[in-house]
Automatic annotation (TrEMBL):
Family from the record: Belongs to the MurB family.
Pathway info: Cell wall biogenesis; peptidoglycan biosynthesis
InterPro entries: FAD-bd_PCMH, FAD-bd_PCMH-like_sf, FAD-bd_PCMH_sub1, FAD-bd_PCMH_sub2, MurB, MurB_C, MurB_C_sf, Oxid_FAD_bind_N
One Gene Ontology molecular-function label: UDP-N-acetylmuramate dehydrogenase activity
FAD-binding PCMH-type domain boundaries: 16-180
Location of this chain's protein in the cell: Cytoplasm
Enzyme nomenclature, EC number: 1.3.1.98
PROSITE patterns: FAD_PCMH (PS51387)
Top-level EC class: oxidoreductase
UniProt keyword Cell wall biogenesis/degradation, yes or no: yes
Transmembrane annotation, as ranges: none
Name of the protein in question: UDP-N-acetylenolpyruvoylglucosamine reductase
Keywords annotated in UniProt: Cell cycle, Cell division, Cell shape, Cell wall biogenesis/degradation, Cytoplasm, FAD, Flavoprotein, NADP, Oxidoreductase, Peptidoglycan synthesis
């Protein structure tokens, strides 16, 4: 494991923004993650773990600690149970499940992130989420290596304990899938990818910037203006952002996508500050019109 210093983080996130990391390490094996965690603890410095950098906004100030790029990618199969390294890309996991004829995770086909990132944010779409499949999660923290049960992880809509002051690293997790055929899993995965390619804009983006609104928690002012029948229990924030007049709005080179208003795009040389200011203005306009506070899916670093 090689620890580097003063590494530019722009190439390590999908927005292409951010400053330098004081310390930096590329982890290819689980032991690298463990060693990096130990290094941070011995130095008494903060650390963050990035996979594909697809759901973060890194400040131009950079990160005054250790940035760990998680490139672990091991996948093991035991009948219908997979053990997946946290750094494995969702594309790799999808490809593996197709080759093994295992069904259940097709809803994440085409998502540009890692398995660990999907666990942290309980990623999901098209009537599924990662929590539906998880058996347990292996982590390392100040108490050593241990397994966190699904119940202990406290998964909820786009959320888990790992998103809130978690002082450890997700190493891997086990998930339960269902036996099927390569042809059926491939067909379903390709269908999801096709739907996503139609819905999602191209360009440098984190994906959906804000969480969708759960109908059960929506304020009356919002429910009086939006038809919720036929929805999956969530109101798309892209729809609210569009109706609040934000589509195409810009701060510098940061733009609310004109294709899907749920996305903020870096159209050129936007800074993290540009993107954050634009997101705050979007939140204000949506709140003024609908009385609902949008919550970012993106983590600010």
């Amino acid at each position: 494991m090689k620890i580097e210093k003063d590494i530019d983080l722009k190439r390590y996130n999908t927005y292409g923004v951010g400053g330098n990391a004081r310390y930096f390490v590329l982890a290819r094996e689980e032991q690298d993650l463990i060693n990096a965690f130990t290094f941070a603890k011995e130095k008494n410095i903060s650390f963050i773990v990035l996979g594909k950098g697809s759901n973060v906004l890194i400040s131009e100030k950079g990160f005054d600690g250790l940035v760990i790029i998680n490139n672990t990618r091991e996948i093991k199969k035991d009948n219908e149970i997979l053990s997946v390294s946290s750094g494995a890309s969702l594309a790799l996991v999808t490809k593996f499940t197709i080759s093994e004829g295992l069904s259940g995770i097709e809803f994440l086909a085409g998502v540009p992130g890692t398995f660990g990132g999907a666990i942290i944010g309980n990623a999901g779409c098209y009537f599924g989420e990662i929590a539906d499949l998880i058996l347990d999660v292996e982590i390392i923290d100040g108490e050593g290596m241990k397994k966190i049960t699904k119940k202990e992880a406290r998964f909820s809509y786009r959320d888990s304990i790992f998103k809130h002051d978690f002082q450890g690293i997700i190493l891997s997790a086990r998930l339960k899938l269902n036996s099927s055929t390569k042809e059926k899993v491939s067909e379903k995965s390709l269908d999801i990818i096709k739907k996503r390619s139609i819905k999602d804009p191209k360009g440098r983006t984190s994906g959906s910037f804000f969480k969708n609104i759960e109908v059960k928690n929506a304020p009356k002012k919002l429910l009086s203006q939006v038809e919720t029948r036929g929805m999956d229990g969530h109101i798309p924030t892209g729809k609210l952002i569009d109706e609040a007049g934000c589509k195409g709005m810009r701060v510098g080179d940061a733009e609310v996508s004109t294709y899907n208003a749920g996305f903020i795009i870096n159209t050129g040389n936007a800074t993290a500050d540009d993107i954050k200011k634009l997101a705050e203005e979007v939140k204000k306009r949506v709140y003024d019109k609908f009385g609902v506070e949008l919550e970012p899916e993106v983590r600010y670093l």
